[in-house]
Amino acid sequence: MAAAAAAAGAMAAEEAEEALGLFTGIGLSEAKARETLRNGALSALLRRAVLQARSALGPALDKATGTLLYNAAARLKDPKHLGFLVGYIARREILTDLQLGAALEYVRNHPLEPLDVADFERACGVGVCVTPEQIEEAVEAVISEHRAELLAERYHFNMGLLMGEARSRLRWADGKTIKNEVDLQVLHLLGPKTEADLEKKPKAAKARLAPAEKQKVAVVENGEVGMETRSLLEQLRGEALKFHKPGENYKTEGYVVTPNTMALLKQHLAITGGQVRTRFPPEPNGILHIGHAKAINFNFGYAKANGGICFLRYDDTNPEKEEEKYFTAIREMVEWLGYQPCAVTHASDYFDQLYTWALELIRRGQAYVCHQKVEEIKGHNPPPSPWRDRPVEESLLLFEDMRKGKFGEGEATLRMKLVMEDGKMDPVAYRVKFTPHHRTGDKWCIYPTYDYTHCLCDSIEHITHSLCTKEFQARRSSYFWLCNALDVYCPVQWEYGRLNLLYTVVSKRKIIRLVETGAVRDWDDPRLFTLTALRRRGFPPEAINNFCARVGVTVAQATMEPHLLEACAREVLNEQAPRAMAVLEPLRVTITNFPAPKALEVLVPNFPADESRGFHKVPFQPTIYIEETDFREEMDKGYKRLAPGQPVGLRHAGYVIAVQNIIKDASGRVIELEVTCTKSDLAEKPKAFIHWVSEPLACEVRLYERLFLHKNPEDPSEVPGGFLSDLNPDSLRVVHNALVDSSVLSARPFDKFQFERLGYFSVDPDSKEGKMVFNRTVTLKEDPGKA
User: Is position 214 annotated as part of the catalytic site?
Assistant: First the structure.
């Protein structure tokens, strides 16, 4: 055994040395040659290419030919075309990297054999001979077109423009020859460079955009020009530039091309008209969370940015866990975020077709009925199924028995014959479940799995870009395999990194545990990061969309701090939330010299920075209420608010108040102040202005903090006792007897306000006549301790 291993090692070393000699023989440095050897696939292709070229040209290959061979091996996506391309290089019919690039592009765009040789040669410039006279004429024509600008700007003119235009006229001309001719003719026209020509051209000053102009871009939609914030669509569009165009699925790395692929793509284009189609496919067994918001933005946003459409498709293949409330809530949240699906579909819409395809898969020998238990086939290394090679007719009969309910749950499954990217073998396509379906009733007692359903539903709906998070990458091979095994249109699956937040949990199972233990009220508890919870807390949908766009669409998983989402909320709410005044801990104040016999009306701007957006009226009478924390009996250094001997201004009222008398209860607690007031223009300017209310409405205010104490409550190394042991006891504080000015009286659930000096608040659905309830969305400024 040891001797055999040693011999094998010696043989491998000998082959490596031989390859090293081949690679350095075509002009690679020894370092580059050794680096190439470390890439097994590349070194195998390059070795084939070099040996083929040497058989035609002899052992001595010049460096230019070697460079072409290396680039062909390194850049070719489909190795079956290597010999074809090397033949053209060896025959000196492909001589430049420009021609090689065109050849590589051609074979990538024509994946099926045989290639049309005449068309290939036309596309690659084979046999095209560009004469010096043609180059001279082309350059002369370009310079003639720009003669006036050249004479005006002389050598400060962009000579690259001349080069580019000349090359566009003579695609296969040698670049160096064109440059030499441009230099010669420019010198003839302008003469030698002068001292002025050698001075640097002054840079033109760039016009500075106002902040609003930087953030917005004109977008044409439905024939109308509107203003769209750049962060919503531009970032999504930018990431998606590398995506294939509809109908060009075969250009995607890893896409499997079959003899029927091109015909199927042609049919697909005839049906879609080349339109981008995406889908958002949630399971209706829970409420959407912040991670889903990214998926919604990416799927709907990519379609919108490219003039396409997006389906909302419910993956309703597990009737045991699905409830109508989830279907309703999912659609509400999609529309709340500002998106309208082109159609709402269900996997169950296609159950009949999926079943027909399952029968076809069995007939083609690609699926079989298996009786291994669920426990036996779990994990990545289960024992092979003893039923994998059972006769097709037997599997057809048994699958029919499954459909008729002759097997109990767990007694039989239909499995597909493939090995997935993560090594999992023969994934399940159908299983038995005696659970009525919310849409199909008792028609079925077998239900398809995600691995079977997802790609086929994408195929039926002619999805162009099947966008999903990175954990589904292991299913990409089964996705392509199944569509091709059935000879149906195969979309492209693209994976991106999921979005997670710190200080929270988003898994359905864990949220259910939080609800069951009473840690939160329900899925929409404002301390959670489900979308219904964020809406209830008062987060505007625009803030969530902006947050998702700022995170970006990356392959790597993004784990973000909640304060970044809160910052997005502040930006939007500052523009959207009208101002009001509220007092959380009221202290009664009596104005003893009130300037009028009855209550006055004060005009308060809805948005102080832009009074054109209107005003609201609030009453001002002898009794007002201020925050307890805005008064101190004794002044500390730096304290600027109300105290004996230190007056304060009342916001918007136009008056300054000064303490005359302090009234306390039996325990010594301050319960009332008696003050005098003076018009602001007659009084010395106070150090501070405070908010207040008069004739207020009683309300309840709920103040929220993080639900968990640690950043990663699910991490055993950070929280050994489990996430339920990490709950923040101060995550909710309820102020039962807060007061708010009467301008909010007509507000409805989810209406939003900025309570001056306190934060942004939203009307909670628990509000009822006579007692409004407000949730604090975010404070006015970020708490430095949370950053």
Answer: no
